[in-house]
Amino acid sequence: MTKVDAIAIIVAAGRGERAGGELPKQYRPLLSKPLLRWAVEPFLVHPRINGVLVVIDPAFEALYEAATEGLDLLAPVMGGATRQQSVRAGLEALAAHGAPAHVLIHDAARPFTPPAVIDRVLDALETHAAALPVLAVADSLKRVENGAVAASVERAGLARAQTPQGFRFDVLLKAHRAAAEGYTDDAGILEATGLPVAAVAGSEELFKVTEATDLARAERHLLARHGDVRTGQGFDVHRFGPGDQVILAGVRIPHDAALMGHSDADVALHALTDALLGAISAGDIGKIFPPTDPQWKGMDSAVFLTHARDLVTQQGGVIAHIDLTLICEQPRIGPHRDAMRQRIAEILQVDVSRVSVKATTTEGLGFTGRSEGIAAQAIATVRLP
User: Sign of torsion, CA 293 298 301 306?
Assistant: First the structure.
């Protein structure tokens, strides 16, 4: 395995409107983390890549910061109106700060890049100025006009182009500076100069997320890759004391009492934290965040749940589902259920459809029936590779 001086540029400046949803697709949650994070991480951990730079839409800089929190990335570059302009912006930024020998251009909409494909592209750059992964066309091809088949197209010699596409940096930058607008990939810009582009074997894993159905396909792919299913259970209780609100699942609810505890006493997030820790056999909340430690006094319990989420991620796991039950007579949970689900989904970086929040009473029995406090029970389903 030959070490090369290579930087990866991840192009994430598009709006991804065809995928639907309120967020650009690259920031949509894919199980436990945003799609962009899935796309970036294979390059960050690859031993032959020296750095990763992401090109983004300046309107979504805050989303980018949240999606890549904690990752060792080069400073992001603001993209242009087209993919070609965005890649050029990334290249110019690298040129201004010590150009690498090689550069890989990758689409943020391709979240699953096998390390072997990166290796094949880099190996090809030892003897070629450019290389791209391709897949042979297996289906019969037809030209369709006005809703009808106009002709068959010979598929021999045809291939589907994928990313990451690799280049000698100086060659690609020169080609970009000279190119007219209108190219859909960087290999096309090199082809127009007459330079040969090496073709290496791609992968079916490198599919592109374009439509909403592709996001569902990506989820199925991840779940198939994470076949070790674990469950964890969490339970917590906090009593009522003086106050005028309770905090449940990160949501402040006006009430004639408050929950008592060393932190913010969010019984819901405490139970969820223990459920996640249990699913990966990582102890419990009291062990990691002991109530005798003054640094946790009054702490937002989202900090505890975020830590549990990160422990799952560090093991290569994904959070498949969360089921929370709140046990109390008061306050009423129903009016706040959606806000609770949304807040939990935000903390865990999962789609809200993967979060269930329920409430029940004990029919006047026990300490919850006497309105002395609130109990919470949670079950977390985690999938590990």
Answer: negative
Question: Cα separations (Å) of 311 from 131, 222, 273?
Answer: 37, 18, 11
Report the alpha-carbon distance of residue 246 to residue 255 in Å, rounded: 6
The answer to whether 77 and 30 are in contact (CB under 8 A) is: no
Query: Looking at residues 226-231, what average pLDDT do you find?
Result: 94
For residues 294-302, give the mean pLDDT: 95
The model carries a pTM of 0.77
CA distance 75 to 57: 13
Q: Which two tokens stand for residue 365?
A: 């029995």
Q: For the ranges 100-114, 209-223, 230-244, which has the lowest average pLDDT?
A: 209-223
Query: d(Cα 88, Cα 254) in Å, to the nearest integer?
Result: 53
> H-type helices in the chain, by residue range?
35-44, 61-67, 83-96, 115-124, 169-178, 186-192, 212-225, 267-279, 285-288, 302-314, 337-348, 366-369
Domains in the chain, ordered, with CATH? 6-225 (3.90.550.10), 228-384 (3.30.1330.50)
